[in-house]
Amino acid sequence: MHPKQKTMDKTKILFVCLGNICRSPSAEAVMKGLVEKEGISKNFEIDSAGTAAWHAGEPADPRMQVHARKRGYNLTSISRPVNPETDFDKFDYIIAMDEQNMRDLKNMAKKKEHLDKLHMMTDFSKEYNYKSVPDPYYGGEEGFELVLDLLEDSCQGLLEHVSENEQTNKK
Length: 171
What we know:
The protein is α/β, with parallel strands linked by helices. The protein has helices spanning 3-8, 23-37, 62-70, 87-90, 99-108, 112-116, 141-170; strands at residues 11-17, 44-50, 93-96, 118-120. The chain has one domain (15-162): Rossmann fold (3-Layer(aba) Sandwich), CATH 3.40.50. The chain has a 4-stranded parallel sheet, with helices on both faces. β1, α2 and β2 form a beta-alpha-beta unit. The chain is globular, with a radius of gyration of 15 Å.
């Protein structure tokens, strides 16, 4: 591959939670909003999926949509399960919301290169000290707000990480 060719490829990011109706579609929307604001959305392909297929074909949780809309995010993705046959090869970064999601993803990975793509969302957090993004599904309004706080912080950190890696790879 020609060295210039890699820099023209899109950075592909997949956010993963359990059902793909709260945390991962929110991470997808936050990250899309961030790269749009920076004017670099053409450089990215951003998606989300769940480790379980319970909600496949459904939109994001209505409560999550309400809280996201208050911050200017529109959750438009439709829930789908992770596809181990294609997602691990397609995406550069596969971001788990919690430790159970990470265990499930590790069990789905078929090659060492796949494991190298796995990261915890909170690994990129700069302001908060959480080990994971807690599932707000059974909680109250403050849980949905916390998820968005953590995602805004972590997505900013992820974007900085990706940008630093791109600069390093260009040298």
